[in-house]
Design goal:
By secondary structure, the chain is α+β, with helices and mostly antiparallel strands. It has two domains: about 90 residues, Winged helix-like DNA-binding domain superfamily/Winged helix DNA-binding domain (Arc Repressor Mutant, subunit A, Orthogonal Bundle), CATH 1.10.10.10; about 160 residues, Chorismate lyase-like (Chorismate lyase), CATH 3.40.1410. Strand 5 and strand 6 form a beta hairpin. The protein starts with about 25 loop residues before the first helix and ends in a 6-residue tail after the last strand.
Length: about 260
């Protein structure tokens, strides 16, 4: 991680370099956010440069550590900075988002997988969590195959995934020479079945330590969690996919049309 520390620099016309304490002024942390945000967006605090320490910002703007930490929290949420334990706070490097437009067509979701490089981390057989057992309609004595993988585009990790399959299907795919292909396509080819539909939910969460490691993010960063349950043509569940996406590297656009 680069260690060059960003400089606050001299004031530009129209950009405040001090914090107002008048009765009508905005909260102190909000003013500090505006100052730092403008410096980042204008390039005066460059990508990968280290921000001044909390102590230096407290001294420079005559504010408390609580004010600085709240300002950092806002900038972290906006994706403008990132923090590394023991190293400091850095201006975040911009990354291009991967966009997939979903129009109610399963082929669109499968096509996204064809564009990325998939690295399988491991295959294992285990007793699945109860919610996975219910989703896949497994018997109480059935185990599941769990496949962990990381998908990248241009060397940048986009997605860390946990794929749950009934054990009987996992055994077929475990030693497949093409196991680095997207599972949805591979399953159709190897099992001679057709995926008919899927149910998908998306929500925002914070990256836990193990997930952050694979996505090359600091723990606690905002990420997208996507859970997709796919079905055969006859309505039987085929696999449950739990994916974690770096929030600034993945964009999902859904087109809605009026029915009838």
């Amino acid at each position: 991680m680069p260690s060059n520390e960003g400089k606050l620099g001299k004031a530009r016309e129209g950009l405040p370099e001090s914090i107002s304490r008048s009765g009508a002024a905005r909260p102190l942390y909000h003013q500090l956010v505006e100052i730092l945000r403008m410096k980042i967006l204008e390039g005066r605090l460059e990508a990968d440069s280290r921000l001044p320490t909390e102590a230096r910002l407290c001294e420079r703007f005559d504010v408390s550590r609580a004010t600085v930490r709240e300002a950092f929290r806002v900038l972290l949420h906006e994706g403008l900075i990132t923090r590394y334990a023991g190293k400091g706070t850095f201006v975040r490097r911009k990354t291009e988002a991967v966009s997939v437009e979903l129009k109610g067509n399963l082929e669109d979701a499968i096509a996204l997988g064809e564009k990325v490089e998939i690295r399988r981390i491991d295959f294992s057989t285990e007793t699945p969590p109860q919610e996975v057992r219910r989703a896949l309609r497994l018997r109480s004595d059935e185990r599941a195959t769990l496949i962990r993988s990381v998908s990248s585009l241009g060397g940048i990790p986009l997605q860390y995934s946990l794929t749950y399959l009934p054990e009987r299907i996992g055994r077929i795919l475990q030693n497949d020479p093409e196991c680095n292909r997207p599972f949805s396509r591979l399953i159709e080819i190897r099992l001679g079945v057709r995926l008919q539909n899927c149910r998908q939910i998306i929500r925002a969460i914070q990256a836990k330590k193990d997930i952050a490691k694979y996505l090359q993010l600091p723990p606690g960063d905002p990420i997208l969690f996507v859970e997709r349950l796919s079905y055969y043509e006859n309505g039987t569940p085929l696999h449950l996919l739990r994916s974690y996406f770096a929030g600034d590297r993945y964009l999902c656009v859904v087109h809605l049309t009026r029915g009838g």
